[in-house]
């Protein structure tokens, strides 16, 4: 636990942090702890070693089609939902290759930084599978239909720089600066109005399926909720007094 934020590291570096059921359990528990901890105001997700995450561990996967579906229903889908529903910012520091569900896990996070050596690969078609873990939902929204189709159908790798210029991620940074850039961002987020940031996440998520009319109504509802929170009073007071706000996250 850092000052106001938590770091979660996928830690199976010898297999590029590919997912076993055990790794899923550890990650779910770490995210739940971060969600429950009121002193934790932002989360950093990264990988140990030279890779970020190579998706499903292909040695552990069962041959039964229903087992493949169950893995998604029981582990990958709840993971993506957990991150999107977590009412605090989740930053992903992609330290190396992100393939298959590993790439889509990164796209589920709120802000993605990537080391220049990182690559994003929709590896699914290469093993005759379909992009999962939200890939078919995230990709067209991040990069548009044309690029989403080509990436999903070819499994071609996208470099961190290309990903940044396509708007797939927030920023590509020099390899040796990834950790410090991520920590700087987390340290900043940990001082921000956390509850309001949680409402911002909710609004953005809802916008994907709402009409403009419905979204305007939701914004009014969430704005009212934000305006009833202590951090809003502090934000207004700090503005009037021409000083930096001291948000508590409430
Ligand atoms: C691995 C893996 C891996 C095991 C590298 N598994 N060992 C969800 C649920 C249900 C069904 C299926 O789908 C899913 C979601 C998915 O994610 S499906 C897609 C699964 N992922 C992939 O297809 C990617 C497979 N990996 C690769 O293509 C390459 O390893 C990449 C491009 C990621 C990296 O290539 P390199 O940098 O050349 O590394 P490497 O291939 O040499 O890998 C290093 C080691 O990691 C190696 O082990 P070894 O014992 O030989 O040193 C690999 O076997 C192991 N590894 N990915 N997914």
How would you sum up this structure, described in words?
It comes from Enterovirga aerilata. The chain is of the alpha/beta class. The chain has 2 domains: 6-189, Alpha-Beta Complex (2-enoyl-CoA Hydratase, Chain A, domain 1), CATH 3.90.226; 194-240, Lyase 2-enoyl-coa Hydratase, Chain  A, domain 2, CATH 1.10.12. Helices cover 49% and strands 14% of the residues. The strands form 2 sheets. The chain has a 5-stranded parallel sheet with strand order 1-2-4-6-9, sandwiched between helices. Strands 3-5-7-8 form a 4-stranded mixed sheet.
Task: Summarize the topology.
Layout: E1 6-10, H1 21-36, E2 43-47, E3 51-53, H2 65-85, E4 90-94, E5 97-99, H3 101-108, E6 111-115, E7 119-121, H4 135-143, H5 145-154, E8 157-159, H6 160-165, E9 171-173, H7 178-189, H8 194-207, H9 212-227, H10 230-240
Parallel strand pairs: 1-2, 2-4, 3-5, 4-6, 5-7, 6-9
Antiparallel strand pairs: 7-8
Bound molecules: ligand LHQ.
């Amino acid at each position: 636990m850092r000052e106001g934020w938590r770091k979660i590291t996928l830690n199976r570096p010898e297999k590029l942090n590919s997912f076993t059921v055990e790794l899923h359990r550890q990650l779910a528990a770490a995210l739940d702890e971060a969600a429950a901890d009121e002193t934790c105001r932002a989360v950093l997700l990264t990988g140990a070693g030279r890779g970020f995450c190579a998706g499903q561990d292909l040695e552990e996967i069962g041959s039964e089609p229903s087992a493949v579906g169950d893995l998604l229903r029981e582990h990958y889908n709840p993971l993506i939902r957990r991150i999107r529903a977590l009412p605090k910012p989740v930053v992903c520091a992609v330290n190396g290759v992100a393939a298959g569900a590993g790439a889509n896990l990164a796209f589920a996070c709120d802000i993605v930084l990537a080391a220049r050596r990182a690559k994003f690969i929709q590896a699914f078609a290469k093993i005759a599978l379909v992009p999962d873990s939200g890939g078919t939902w995230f990709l067209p929204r991040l990069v548009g239909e044309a690029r989403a189709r080509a990436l999903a159908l070819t499994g071609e790798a996208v470099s961190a720089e290309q990903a940044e210029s396509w708007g797939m991620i927030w920023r590509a940074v020099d390899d040796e600066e990834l950790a410090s850039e991520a920590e700087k961002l987390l340290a900043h987020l940990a001082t921000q109005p956390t509850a309001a940031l949680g409402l911002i996440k909710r609004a953005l998520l809802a916008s994907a399926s709402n009409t403009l009319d419905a979204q305007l109504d939701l914004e009014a509802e969430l704005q009212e909720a934000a305006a009833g929170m202590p951090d809003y009073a502090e934000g207004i007071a700090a503005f009037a007094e021409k000083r930096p706000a001291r948000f508590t996250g409430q």
